[in-house]
């Protein structure tokens, strides 16, 4: 993974709004347009209304006009690894391909690299839509 993607995820993490969990997370996507779209988790006093860093990054990507995740880095400072939650795995998959790489990072750098299929095997597919 290139340093710019890692740095973007780290920078995004610093912008999180996580006063309740105190668990900052950052994510950065390199999309098919070559651009980086980043995001952090944004929590809410009404707890279920908060959302994850990956979701923010995906929102930025789509609003930037891109629809394909080439690679995505996720970083959390308080865990050795921060694998995307179940819901975010499905959200990433929506814009991923078999070649999409997911980098699980910590303060020091990439700790684990996974493919989309490793992250979300046996995922929901209708076989009809798309
Ligand atoms: N969180 C993420 O941002 N991404 C994940 O993949 C897992 C969890 C956030 C949600 C919440 O703000 C905090 O981490 C604690 O669960």
Automatic annotation (TrEMBL):
Q: Please indicate which superkingdom the organism of origin belongs to.
A: Bacteria
Matching entries from InterPro entries are given as: APOBEC/CMP_deaminase_Zn-bd, CMP_dCMP_dom, Cyt/Deoxycyt_deaminase, Cyt_deam_tetra, Cytidine_deaminase-like
A Pfam family of this chain: dCMP_cyt_deam_1
Which cofactor(s) does the record list?
Zn(2+)
The record's GO molecular-function terms, alphabetically, read: cytidine deaminase activity
Question: EC top class, in one word?
Answer: hydrolase
Catalyzed reactions: 2'-deoxycytidine + H2O + H(+) = 2'-deoxyuridine + NH4(+); cytidine + H2O + H(+) = uridine + NH4(+)
Which NCBIfam families would you find in this protein's record? cyt_deam_tetra, PRK05578.1
UniProt family annotation: Belongs to the cytidine and deoxycytidylate deaminase family.
This protein's name = Cytidine deaminase
Species in which this protein is naturally found: Rhizobium aquaticum
